[in-house]
Design a protein that fits this description.
This protein is an alpha+beta fold. The chain starts with a helix and ends with a helix.
Length: 707
């Protein structure tokens, strides 16, 4: 039946009266200017709809045909069209019907159609005149047309199909059937990709006498397919793009013996052959490549068995690929857990930055890199650690969010993989001399949705570009690194607040609350281990008067200098605190009273010898201190007892004239114990009076010196 007659008969059907129809025919082994299909007959009801339909369908006609079922599409300003693929007399056709629209009109899409020839409103009356239909109505029309075309199959076509069926039913040797069945069982048990390919190809060679075999499988990123010679061919045969793969797996080539010429030969120039038969490898709708047999005439019955074998191999390869992916994910998870344990042991920010950068560079084999953190104002960025460059110089660089490659990553929060900084339109910059390669990766460091910094890496060890796999691996690690950075900052902040809560802000010494806690701990330890412990109380003499005469700034400085003297006179294991006002307390674990007296004298002497601010203006012309010493266990076994004993000794030193050391009286001095304690208590009770009398004398001396 001529093409025009076929189209006229279809157009005469009432259901197609309002449709424009166009018939496309596959050209014989050549490529038309608009694809592998070209228009061979048309009946146009509406030119505008036909033109829009042509742009929509012709570009992907091969894809629509490969699907093998009628397709209904909405496009343009709300137009509907259908496409029906079919085969008549051994030739492939596509019938396209268009010319109707949906009930509502999409003005925005209509405006895009009209941009080259007026405005959307000029087209509106024209579009409104078109017949309307629902998606379901167009779908029903397409199905009815498909059935009508099915009834048009010519006798010659049916004869051709019957001949093909008869040929396919030619008996298959028992040996071939047995070999394939055995291969299927072996495939099910195989655990490697190479093993699956070997089983499949060995079976094809032995059962069907194949001369040469090759297999095309996807790379790790599935952007290209590597073709490998498996039997009778060189191992490396080249690489195919996703588009080139279609040349081998298209319906007119798949599972059929065709000539090895034209674009097939151009796609794999390394292969010299006469004919080829390609078997697509598909599993769960995913293209895994193909298996191709060269220079062997594969009969239909053999093709059926080989196709079955190839399908089983594809399914097994898909399973192995998923297992490998899961295994990698599990291995990555285990590695990240191990890295987490490693990073959790680090409590210093600088060591953490160094470890993060080293781990990240090892993961993707980078030789240069840096960690940048965003300032609290959210505007600037600081380089906190580097690899392959000088840190001190890097820290001097002025970096801002939104400026430069790292700045843009910090602003957008999106990772960036660059294979060539000079050719990538996103960066388009000259390569810097310090970089050996032009490839780099920038990963944002995020806490939830907030970007806190950027991880930069460059110069892979083999100088090749970084890959998408590198990007994904680094992204997973960056999430962990961000959490570790936050954790360390929180810990340091917590430690800072804790330090503030237990220290005196003026002198930096521990405060009274911390002293009580530590002294009780040391008392318990001393009791358990049978050790001595001595407490020294230090009080500056006439400090209130000094403060009033010399000023509070001088008083604060005197307290800080006194704190330094006490700390320098003690061991690292000793504890010193500001007990209150001008009074200090030192705790000496494992120290007897006699040993502590030596330390106390050193402190007294250093304070007496120190030149304090303004002390030349005070009557006595020097600042001194009185000290009281009490020891565990003889002077007390509790915090309160020891403090009380040392306090009494301190006030006794004050009563005896100041600038001296007094040790607490021990209970071992049986003869004078009761009397000395009773005398000590009145001394403490009268200390305020003593202070008042001494202060009056102090003021009198001061007035005389000024008079």
């Amino acid at each position: 039946m001529p093409f025009g007659d076929l189209l006229s008969e279809l157009k005469a059907l009432p259901m197609l009266a309002r449709y424009s129809l166009t018939l496309y025919r596959r050209r014989d082994g050549t490529v038309a200017s608009n694809g592998r299909f070209e228009s061979c007959a048309t009946v146009v009801e509406d030119p505008l709809c036909r033109e829009v339909s042509r742009h929509f369908f012709e570009e992907d006609m091969e894809v629509f045909f490969e699907e093998g079922t009628p397709s209904v599409c909405r496009y343009g300003g709300g137009f509907f069209g259908f496409l029906i693929p079919f085969t008549l007399s051994g030739e492939d056709f596509c019938l396209v019907g268009d010319g109707v629209r949906e009930e509502s009109i999409d003005l925005w899409q209509l405006a895009s159609l009209a941009r080259n020839g007026g405005d959307a409103f000029s087209l509106l009356p024209y579009v409104e005149s078109l017949c309307t239909a629902s998606y379901e109505e167009v779908e029903e029309v397409a199905e009815q047309v498909r059935r009508r075309i099915e009834s048009y199959r010519l006798p010659s076509q049916r004869h051709h199909e019957r001949a093909a069926v008869a040929r396919a039913q030619e008996p298959v040797g028992d040996e071939a059937l047995y070999a394939v069945s055995q291969a299927l069982e072996r495939l099910d048990k195989m655990g490697t990709v190479t093993g699956c390919i070997a089983i499949c190809c060995e079976t094809i060679v032995s059962a069907f006498q194949a001369a040469r075999i090759a297999v095309a499988l996807p790379d790790s990123e599935r952007k290209s397919f590597s073709v490998t010679g498996v039997w009778g061919l060189p191992e490396e045969l080249g690489t195919l793009s996703v588009e080139a793969l279609q040349l081998f797996t298209a319906p007119d080539k798949a599972k059929k013996t065709v000539l090895w010429d034209g674009k097939l030969r151009a796609a794999l120039p390394e292969v010299q052959a006469t004919v080829c038969t390609t078997f697509p490898l598909r599993a769960q709708g995913e293209r895994l490549g193909f298996l191709v047999i060269f220079d062997t005439d594969i009969l239909p019955n053999a093709a059926m068995l080989i196709s079955m074998l190839a399908g089983a191999m594809a399914g097994k390869l898909s399973t192995l690929d998923k297992d490998a992916t899961r295994s990698k994910e599990n291995a990555l998870s285990e590695r990240l857990m191990s890295l987490t344990d490693t990073l959790l042991q680090i409590d210093s920010k600088d060591l953490l930055y160094e470890s993060i950068l080293k781990i990240a560079s090892d993961l993707i084999e980078a030789t240069q890199g840096s960690i940048m953190l965003i300032d609290k104002d959210g505007v600037g960025m600081q380089i906190v650690f580097t690899l392959g460059m000088t840190l001190n110089i890097a820290r001097c660089l002025q970096l801002k969010v939104g400026k430069g490659i790292a700045g843009m990553v910090a602003k957008t929060g999106q990772p960036l993989l660059v294979n060539d900084v000079e050719k990538d339109s996103r960066v388009a910059m000259a390569n810097r001399l310090r970089f050996k390669s032009k490839s780099l990766i920038c990963i944002p460091l995020k806490l939830k949705d907030k970007v806190i910094g950027v991880l930069n890496l460059s110069d892979k060890k083999n100088l090749r570009p970084f890959t998408h796999a590198d990007l994904m691996l680094l992204t997973s690690f960056a999430n962990l690194a961000s959490l570790m950075i936050e954790r360390t900052e929180v810990l340091e902040e917590s430690e800072r607040f804790e330090q503030l809560s237990v220290t005196d802000p003026l002198t930096g010494l521990y405060n009274r609350r911390f002293l009580k806690s530590r002294l009780e701990e040391e008392l318990n330890r001393s009791a358990r281990q049978g050790l001595n412990l001595t407490v020294i109380f230090i009080d500056l003499d006439f400090f209130k008067s000094y403060n009033d005469l010399c000023g509070h700034l001088a008083g604060d400085e005197a307290l800080k200098l006194t704190a330094d003297i006490i700390k320098d006179s003690l061991r690292d294991m000793d504890i010193v605190a500001r007990y209150g006002g001008e009074e200090f307390c030192a705790v000496l674990p494992g120290t007897s009273k006699a040993e502590a007296m030596i330390v106390a004298e050193r402190i007294r002497f250093e304070i007496e010898s120190k030149r304090f601010p303004g002390e030349s203006d005070i009557p006595l012309r020097r600042l001194t201190a009185s000290l009281g010493v009490a020891s565990f266990p003889e002077d007390g076994r509790t915090f309160n007892d020891l403090v009380h004993a040392s306090d009494i000794a301190l006030y006794e030193a004050k009563a005896r004239g100041r600038n001296r050391i007094v040790a607490a009286r021990t209970s071992s001095q049986q003869g004078e114990s009761k009397r000395e304690v009773s005398e000590a208590r009145p001394a403490a009770t009268q200390s305020n009076l003593a202070k008042t009398l001494d202060f009056n004398a102090y003021l009198e001396a001061s007035l005389q010196s000024k008079g």
